[in-house]
């Protein structure tokens, strides 16, 4: 299905993917009683965070992420992906790592789990990282910086 | 053993599959969403919307449960304070998200799609997380 005015958008695949993510987070909440926040679970798996689910559970969740993507990639006959160059990846990775620990969460924990709970902290965090992301892309485009290869 | 490891593995797998299906493992699509002043790609709004709707229902169910299905009790965030750390950290995260079009979940999931690029980002992300840990320990 195409969205009028947005020929590149994939609204149905997006909605389907979003529902799967919601079900994943619901399983974590109703099954394990915890938030499916990837930055928190990743730092728990690596021992960077001491609180949260057991280390083994954290690793199971983290291993599941590429496993699920692999299943979809095989099922759909390959996925398009255009990544930034090494320098941009390193700079961005550092910022994302530092920012998500200081901000106690990322797109999954704050953006999906917290916003759907109407958590004040998560709504403020989500508005902040969305605004920062939009401003960053706008400034980079205005400067003619093309990072994707 | 199976009852203990299967729920988080299944949750992670559904999560990674959803990210891939929704196009979030492609940084070009994520940056396209953030590019609201240019050639805007609204796909991520559908991903976020679908996930938030399902989770809003899950929170209604959670409110009626005495304890989770496979654990003795709920362990959920209780803080409500808005701090400079929360806002500053989220801003730094957003800048990084905008630069490369990657956040933690899609970056880890993309390890099987574009291994070298995803691993570069994930290694830097882990380093960033470690830096915060070192600073906060002092």
TrEMBL record, chain B:
Q: Which UniProt keywords apply?
A: Membrane, Transmembrane, Transmembrane helix
Write down the superkingdom of origin: Bacteria
InterPro entries this protein is in? DUF6691
Spans through the membrane: 42-61, 82-102, 108-132
- Its protein name is YeeE/YedE family protein
Tell me the organism.
Answer: Pontixanthobacter luteolus
